[in-house]
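REQUEST ID: PR-0412
SUBMITTED BY: lab tech R.K.
PRIORITY: routine
TASK: structure prediction, single protein chain
INPUT:
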Amino acid sequence: MDRQRDVQQHGDASGGDDHRHQRIVARRFRVTGRVQGVGFRVFVLQAAEAEGVGGWVRNTPDGDVEGIAEGEREALDRFEKTLQRGPANARVDHLAMEDVEPSRLSGRFEIR
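STATUS: complete
OUTPUT:
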């Protein structure tokens, strides 16, 4: 059930599923690099709102950013690609994504 990917090393690992009826999926993410003090959480919030993705984002004590995102698979794929870029002042060294069980966070995203 859990699938973890190293996006920086392996690129887009969406698997190419093409379904007419999207189901809600959820992914835990962790971003390393220069991601604190550069507006990264606000950037994530705006990206989530643009894609209709629910969930949350927060800074970690060790300097990373982590969160949960939940929505339609294609929306999460686009959200993931946006996180890889990051805002202008950030530097994304590594993005890890892991599938998790959805918990009905869709539609609401918050900074914690």
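NOTES: Residues 34-63+73-91+102-112 form a domain with the Alpha-Beta Plaits fold (CATH 3.30.70.100).
REVIEWED BY: pending
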